């Protein structure tokens, strides 16, 4: 079963998938860097604060609470699903997105875990 949490669509999609993360969060920056090491040049990464004008369809309040992946077809995904969809572009990690998409239980647990971490990311940034 597909667990689709598509948030919105943008009218001017990027040429390649772009992951938007919180540039004010140290944990988020380190996490984006780790993910970028896996996806390489297949996915662009940018702090959401620098992309607000580029993607006005995504509310800033949504970007403040979760990572977002803007696909080249204009689809926008957020939270754990955004991370798994980004991994789809990493040859050695693409299985993770397939597992997320096929297992409703895994998807629900991933979203639950993502929310726990996201709600405490500034505290985590201070500790790590």
Q: Helical amount among residues, as a percent range? A: 40-55%
Please state roughly what percent of the residues sit in beta strands, choosing from under 5%, 5-15%, 15-25%, 25-35%, 35-45% or over 45%: 5-15%
Number of helices: 6
Largest sheet: 5 strands, mixed
Strand order of the largest sheet: 1-5-4-2-3
Order of helices and strands: EEHEHEEHHHH
The structure class reads alpha+beta
The average pLDDT score comes to 92
Please report the distance between the alpha carbons of the first and last residues.
36 Å
Rg from Cα = 14 Å
Low-confidence stretches: none
Number of strands: 5
What overall geometry do the principal axes of the alpha carbons give? globular
Q: Any idea how many domains?
A: 1
Tell me what you see in this structure.
This protein is α+β, with helices and mostly antiparallel strands. The chain has one domain (6-127). The protein is built from 6 helices and 5 strands. The chain has helices spanning 26-39, 60-65, 79-87, 94-102, 104-119, 121-127; strands spanning 6-9, 18-21, 44-47, 68-70, 75-78. A 5-stranded mixed β-sheet has the order 1-5-4-2-3. Helix 3 crosses helix 4 and helix 4 (94-102) crosses helix 5. The longest helix has 16 residues, at 104-119. It is globular and about 35 Å long. The model has no long low-confidence stretch (mean pLDDT 92).
Give the gist of this structure:
The protein has helices at residues 26-39, 60-65, 79-87, 94-102, 104-119, 121-127, and strands at 6-9, 18-21, 44-47, 68-70, 75-78. The protein has 128 residues and is an alpha+beta fold.
């Amino acid at each position: 079963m597909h667990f689709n949490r598509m948030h919105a669509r943008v009218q001017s999609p990027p040429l390649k998938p772009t992951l938007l993360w919180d540039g004010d969060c140290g944990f988020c920056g380190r996490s984006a860097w780790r993910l970028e090491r896996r996806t390489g040049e297949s996915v662009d990464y940018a702090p959401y604060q620098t992309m607000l004008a580029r993607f006005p369809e995504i509310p800033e309040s949504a970007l403040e609470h979760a990572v977002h992946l803007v696909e080249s077809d204009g689809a926008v995904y957020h939270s754990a699903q955004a991370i798994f969809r980004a991994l789809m572009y990493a040859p050695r990690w693409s299985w993770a997105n397939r597992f997320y998409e096929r297992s409703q239980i895994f998807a629900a647990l991933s979203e639950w875990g993502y929310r726990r971490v996201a709600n405490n990311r500034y505290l985590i940034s201070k500790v790590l």
